[in-house]
Amino acid sequence: MPAFEKIEYKPISVREILVEMKDISEFMIDLAYSAALFHDKELADEVVHLENRVDTLAYLLDMSAMLATRSPEDAEALVGVSAVASAADKISDAAADIAAIVLRDIRVHPIVREAFEKVEERLGCVKVVSKSVLVGKRLDGLKLEAKIGVNVIAIRRGNNWIINPKPDEIIEDEDFLIVRGAPGGMVDLKGLAEGSLRKLEG
Questions:
Q1: What distance in Å separates the CA atoms of residue 167 and residue 181, rounded to the nearest whole number?
Q2: For residue 5, which phi and psi values (nearest 5 degrees)?
């Protein structure tokens, strides 16, 4: 796996790590299935990014556990924590395996894909460029759900992830937005993110 030796240890509570691992691994399953069903390589790439984040969190959790263990009783108390973290890590690995199907250009059966083409809501990924009207705007100020029927459910900013961003989160240049919504709205958002559309209607 990735180079753990490059990861700088920073104090972070075991609880925070577990919560983030749980949230990300659950989110990855949704992304991976959507990527497979719609053969969306952008979503598949994001699953891979997320798997790397979960692996990093697992490494940080192991370090935190080692630093916290001072007796057999401490070690016993941390066994349950380790088991939960391991389960989240396995879920993320499974999601990454699904994403790998897409990245290797293996497609699901046409009948399955045709059935899901009728789904009203999908997941999608768009990258925000510097000339986009979205840059510098708050999510709640854009009113994306009301205007084009899409909702930002996560943001990747560099190597950091914001899952379920708050309404006052400000979109930045180079952000990757993970959105849920109607296919038509996805097209509009892509235009806004890439700068080909300059304003939202309504």
A1: 17
A2: -60, -15
**Per-residue pLDDT tens for 20-56?**
999 999 999 989 988 888 889 999 999 999 999 999 9
* Rounded Cα–Cα distance for residues 191 and 188 (Å): 5
Nearest Cα to Cα of residue 21 among 81, 72, 78: 81
What are the residue ranges spanned by the domains of the chain? 4-103, 120-194
DSSP per-residue codes, 158-181: TTEEEES--TTPBP-TT-EEEEEE
Nearest to 18 by CA among 67, 54, 52: 54
* CA proximity to 130, closest of 172, 168, 162: 172
CA gap 197, 134 in Å, rounded: 10
Fold entry, domain 120-194? Alpha-Beta Plaits (3.30.70)
Provide the sign of the torsion angle of the four alpha carbons 15, 21, 23, 26, taken in this order.
Answer: negative
Q: What is the pTM of this model?
A: 0.73
Distance, in Å, from the CA atom of 14 to the CA atom of 25, rounded to the nearest integer, reads: 16
